[in-house]
Description:
Chain A is mostly helical. Chain A has 6 helices and no strands. In chain A, helix 1 (3-25) packs antiparallel against helix 2, helix 3 packs antiparallel against helix 4 (135-169) and helix 3 (47-129) packs antiparallel against helix 5. Chain B has helices at 14-26, 38-46, 64-73, 91-99, 112-124; strands at 7-10, 32-35, 52-55, 82-86, 104-107.
Amino acid sequence: xxxxxxxxxxxxxxxxxxxxxxxxxxxxxxxxxxxxxxxxxxxxxxxxxxxxxxxxxxxxxxxxxxxxxxxxxxxxxxxxxxxxxxxxxxxxxxxxxxxxxxxxxxxxxxxxxxxxxxxxxxxxxxxxxxxxxxxxxxxxxxxxxxxxxxxxxxxxxxxxxxxxxxxxxxxxxxxxxxxxxxxxxxxxxxxxxxxxxxxxxxxxxxxxxxxxxxxxxxxxxxxxxxxxxxxxxxxxxxxxxxxxxxx
Amino acid sequence: xxxxxxxxxxxxxxxxxxxxxxxxxxxxxxxxxxxxxxxxxxxxxxxxxxxxxxxxxxxxxxxxxxxxxxxxxxxxxxxxxxxxxxxxxxxxxxxxxxxxxxxxxxxxxxxxxxxxxxxxxxxxxxxx
Lengths: 247, 128
């Protein structure tokens, strides 16, 4: 080493090395790092900035990777599942509508029969009340009444039963509603993932995507082909399971 | 069994609450209150004049299972009969509800007969 070089090194770094040593002895971290940064800047002015860029890019890449994995999940699993869920909703609503229509159609004739039979009794009954009925018609009236009363009771019961069924069939709204809410939640997650992707593509600092905690407890109605795990096939299964548990 | 029993029906879907209420009316129970989740239901239960709780499981706010646990944890409500009426049909969930102290468990869709049968069974036997 030449003395010129020594002088240059001394001039460039001497004071800093001493300041560095002093900061180290004093355990002054801020000062130490400050001097170190300063030295590195002198040695290679762009290095820190490059490192900073590199780190930031790495962050973006990692975020992007995490996001890509989530989006892949959406594409491979969640979206097909959602399609299946919605298809199941369409089936359930169609089945409920048909069931309701069937019951309404089945209730029309008995309701009509009661009305017609009652209508046919109005005239003779009026004449009977006004004591204007002839003996032959009176006997006919009695006969009609004998037929009408049990028939009206049976038809009335049939209609009441059908109405009870119509009532229960409306439960589809709850079941499909739960499934649709699940899909709405998925769309919300997808929306936030896409928004994050847009931010990352624009090179802006990513915000944390909503990590949906979801409800670990409730799964909603069983959707064939989507719901996993052991599921009760019907009320009988539930009853058997509960009686095994002493309930 | 007394037809004056006061029921509380908890479900976030108003259609389902109407259905259950109608079925209870058909069975002769006229006294039916409603709530749309556990958070609303709990104070109603704690106010004291509910004799029978019918609750859904999957609800925003406070879920049915948490409501059941809260009921069992409350000394005044610990013996309240609770029927869970839900679409949740996983084996592990039914076991979880049983362990939390449910008195009956009916899965949706259900029939009027099933509801009646479970009510009769629970009301016939002393509540756990």
